[in-house]
Design goal:
This protein has 16 helices and no strands. The chain has about 350 residues and is mainly alpha-helical.
């Protein structure tokens, strides 16, 4: 059987993409965090399934393996979103973060196994959900950029933001065009080239990534012996601002504003907080003080009737939602649940962090 050169090139590019995904998986496996390992594995498996499933020749040659490959490809964009929020925002894997991949898989199954006349609108809906998740992933990369304390991760954000933006727009256009019956002969080769380009860049980035990109430094509130005199002075100034000055109470506090008050370059303060206090993002650094103060107030029987929202606003949170999320992430319970349990048990009031 004669195979056209364009088809051969498409197969070569897809083979390169699958190999690059294997390299990405190996690079991500160096992570000390189980969440990044799991998210990375889900991403690379679903992406490899998509690479194989999105070309007729490779798909038809899979035989019975086509069924699991097609299944794993359905939730790929959800796995990509999961990986982004896990890597760039240090979010744990939970039913909530797994939900987008589950939703996409369910919608994809409806389009795959459902009635033929409903297939086209279902797949268009599936593609629109993919586009929405990809756009939100880009928003996640951008919104936490300024507060990121991990230098290797900060450097990765720009390239990821640019490359993924171009790829998402192109891929969404191709797939929506196919759903509308506007398929062109060159779509397969263009898609294979885009996949190979993306996966190749990912392999280079994650195989050469510094360990700090994945892991978290051990937190220590004491100045390290490795600090020079300037860093020890800056650490003492930072502690003064956060303790006596209660800078953490200010709504919208940024690392730039805190660095200006400390009289230090922003990059130096960022490195100090990450390397010697163990925080990977500025919000976590500030919220650690806020949550400790919240626990002190919530455990006080004399303030048992004070609304949780009033405590949240007093501690620098702009609304109740972020306070509830930060508190639950730190304690495993909502503020209301934690207060109820602590008061019922008669536990001692935690120390005020001031």
């Amino acid at each position: 059987m004669d195979i056209e050169p364009v088809v051969i090139w498409g197969l070569v590019l897809r083979g390169f993409a699958v190999g690059s995904l294997a390299a990405i998986s190996a690079g991500l496996w160096r992570s000390g965090q189980a969440s990044i390992r799991i998210a990375g594995l889900l991403l690379t498996v679903s992406a490899a399934a998509y690479v194989l499933n999105s070309a007729a020749l490779t798909r038809d040659s899979l035989g019975i393996a086509e069924i699991p490959v097609h299944f794993f490809a359905l939730g790929g964009a959800g796995c990509f979103w999961l990986f982004i929020v896990t890597l760039f925002e240090d979010r744990p894997i939970s039913p909530l973060t797994l939900a987008p991949a589950g939703l996409l898989t369910a919608v994809g199954l409806a389009g795959w196994l459902g009635r033929q006349e409903m297939s086209s609108p279902v797949w268009i809906g599936h593609n629109l959900i993919e586009a929405a998740l990809a756009i939100h992933a880009l928003f996640v990369i951008a919104r936490s950029w300024r507060g990121d304390l991990v230098e290797a991760r900060r450097r990765l954000r720009g390239p990821v933001l640019g490359v993924v933006t171009v790829y998402v727009l192109a891929l969404s256009g191709f797939e929506i065009g196919e759903g509308l019956g506007l398929r062109q002969p060159w779509f397969d080769l263009a898609g294979a080239a885009a996949l190979a380009f993306m996966c190749g860049l990912g392999a280079v980035a994650f195989l050469h990534a510094q360990p700090e990109l994945f892991g978290s430094a051990p937190a220590s509130a004491e100045p390290s012996n490795t600090l020079d005199a300037g860093d020890r002075l800056l650490l003492a100034k930072l502690e003064q601002l956060m303790a006596a000055g209660e800078a953490w109470r200010r709504e919208g506090l940024t690392i730039g504003a805190l660095a200006a008050e400390a009289g230090a370059p922003e990059h130096k303060l960022r490195r100090l907080i990450n390397d010697h206090l163990g925080f990977r993002n500025f919000a976590a650094f500030v919220n650690a003080r806020r949550i400790a103060a919240a626990q002190h107030l919530l455990a006080d029987p004399a303030r048992a009737r004070e609304p949780v929202s009033a405590i949240a606003f007093d501690l620098g949170f702009g609304s109740l939602g972020p306070f509830n999320r930060a508190f639950k992430e730190a304690t495993g319970q909502t503020p209301t649940e934690w207060r109820r349990r602590t008061l019922a048990e008669g536990s001692p009031i935690p120390e005020n962090p001031r």
